[in-house]
Amino acid sequence: MEQYSTRSNHEIDYRIVGEEMQYVEVELDPNETAIAEAGSFMMMDDGVQMQTIFGDGSGQDKGVLGKLFSAGKRLLTGESLFMTAFTNMAQGKKRVSFASPYPGKIIPLDLQQLDGRIICQKDSFLCAAKGVNVGIAFQRKLGTGLFGGEGFIMQKLEGDGMAFVHAGGHVFERYLTPGEVLKIDTGCVVAFTQTVDYDIQFVGGIKNSIFGGEGLFFATLRGPGKVWIQTLPISRLASRVLSYGTTNRREEGSILGGLGNILDGDGY
To answer: Is residue 257 part of a domain?
Structure first.
């Protein structure tokens, strides 16, 4: 990976492997460290030391209060108080790999090239170079905090190192020009640059409220800036799997639906 200037965060090289169920392989020089969410670890070379840390590790030099504050930020976003640090304690280069939790794509984000800050969904963060700060992106508008649904708590990734987020289904980027507005399902927003204005809007009208089926709120993103969008939010995937797993659907695709079960003798 080409380096444009000196970074304060650890400088890690990487490669993303796979198509639908990807993993990211991070190459660590001696004493370099990558941090990751608990449960994302896949494999590592001998010589890499694994250690549980408070928060994201960016507050390790700030004393006990700094560590607790760093961990507390993660608790407020619904994540674990702890993360895992992987440090190369050997002489040569070593590799550690982290796997995506469900079908989709891993998005590499060079924070140095993105003005040092990215806002992302709270469950999208996968791993990063040590020094990247994982915190809360407080929204300025009250509506966002009350009605955001799956997107009302956002995370911010700050620093000048590499960070990796995971998204579901197909992932694509869209650049919004100044003043351009995109209306989007809250769960389909993976991440956006700090120049993008984010808010939640109510879908008005009695027909939308009762019969819409898509929920009462959607996100509005106003440019300028870049937005990363996913086609399959994990919440949507989980709800669909749950609906299929809790219903007798032997005749999937039949126009009779549940009535078919009764006619087949399965209803009673």
So the answer is: no
DSSP string, the chain: ----S--SS---EEEEE-SSS-EEEEEE-TT-EEEE-TT-EEEE-TTEEEEEEETTSTTTTSHHHHHHHHHHHHHHTTS-SEEEEEEE-SSS-EEEEEE-SSSEEEEEEEGGGGTTEEEEETT-EEEEETT-EEEE---SSHHHHHH-GGGSSEEEEESSSEEEEEEES-EEEEEEPTT-EEEE-GGGEEEEETTSEEEEEE--SHHHHHH-SS-SEEEEEESSEEEEEESS-HHHHHHHHHHHHTS--TTTT-TTTHHHHHHTT---
| 6 within a domain of the structure (yes/no) | no
Q: Over the stretch 75-93, which tens digit does the pLDDT of each residue have?
A: 555 555 678 999 999 999 9
Say which CATH number the domain at 130 has. 3.60.160.10
130 Cβ neighbours under 8 A, 6+ residues apart: 9, 10, 32, 33, 34, 35, 57, 58, 85, 161
pLDDT at 97 over 90: yes
Range of the domain at 65: 13-246
* Total residue length of the chain: 268
Question: Which residues lie across from 43 on neighbouring strands?
Answer: 97
